[in-house]
Known about the structure:
Layout: H1 3-7, E1 13-22, E2 34-35, E3 37-50, E4 55-60, E5 65-70, H2 80-92, E6 100-106, H3 116-132, H4 138-152, H5 160-167, E7 173-177, E8 183-186, E9 192-198, H6 210-225, H7 246-263, H8 269-287, H9 292-303, E10 307-313, E11 320-326, H10 330-343, E12 349-352
Helix pairs in contact: 2-3, 2-4, 3-4, 3-5, 4-5, 6-7, 7-8, 9-10
This protein binds adenosine-5'-diphosphate (ADP) and magnesium ion.
Amino acid sequence: xxxxxxxxxxxxxxxxxxxxxxxxxxxxxxxxxxxxxxxxxxxxxxxxxxxxxxxxxxxxxxxxxxxxxxxxxxxxxxxxxxxxxxxxxxxxxxxxxxxxxxxxxxxxxxxxxxxxxxxxxxxxxxxxxxxxxxxxxxxxxxxxxxxxxxxxxxxxxxxxxxxxxxxxxxxxxxxxxxxxxxxxxxxxxxxxxxxxxxxxxxxxxxxxxxxxxxxxxxxxxxxxxxxxxxxxxxxxxxxxxxxxxxxxxxxxxxxxxxxxxxxxxxxxxxxxxxxxxxxxxxxxxxxxxxxxxxxxxxxxxxxxxxxxxxxxxxxxxxxxxxxxxxxxxxxxxxxxxxxxxxxxxxxxxxxxxxxxxx
Length: 358
Ligand code: ADP
Ligand code: MG
């Protein structure tokens, strides 16, 4: 299916945005902390045309689904909520948005923790920016995308995914202070590259999931500790006064921030990998966002020679593992990992660096 076949017109413009994988700094962004993502090669593309009636029309190739809305409609459910949210928020910023035909196609894995949702928001916003020449920079685009996800998709997310999708590239990591939005491009550790394997357990992050609950726990913990956000705590000992489970949740956030800050000090690939392994244990034991399949996959990866470290990446409750591996060994390591993972009774698939680009 293409734009012409769905809307019977040619697109006026298009924009695309990548998914992302986070190397370190998980669940720190909504605590004003530090993150270290990179863009993945897979991208979401949004094409736009002017709709001839008074409704917006959205079509997604991946969902093979169409949705139509009046401006005055309440927020829709499903994939339309992300696009509708972006349009609504631009209107709230004071921009006059005509009714649009929106065509979405993507090679970003959906629901695997590589942020297809942010890629959809950022691609939508960049396409509308291009169509209407809106004076929005890439940071503003990320902020509006985040608000679309919070207000319209019901996920009380931080800013990492949209900042990574809007600003990161595939050749380096984006070290981001999510409080100040100060950022620095950081090279991968010497001699290392990235491997991402999907656990086969699709996560569901939006409303009703443990994600929003974790965020609320962090806010309670910060309040009890008398700080604006957990980012303001640097000594892990300081969280020991909290009751459980707030103590373990906070311990994860504080130690995770410290791991990111160490990782950007030009550490070796070996040390970076140790920090990733520690991050996985912390997500599993203290933050409790892993699942047995992901734990099995991380453990398998961590044992393979040539792997510096591996961890759950993304919001958790399923999703993918990212590993830092010796450059040039991706195929060999991936096939051993997949073989062992399948023998353990699970079904995984390689997402990076061997993507099946649609
Ligand atoms: P992740 O961002 O980790 O992939 P989320 O649960 O946050 O997972 O977001 C996935 C949701 O984003 C999908 O259920 C869908 O609503 C929307 N989405 C992402 N990519 C597309 C796409 N190509 N077409 C339509 N909807 C999409
Ligand atoms: Mg998402």
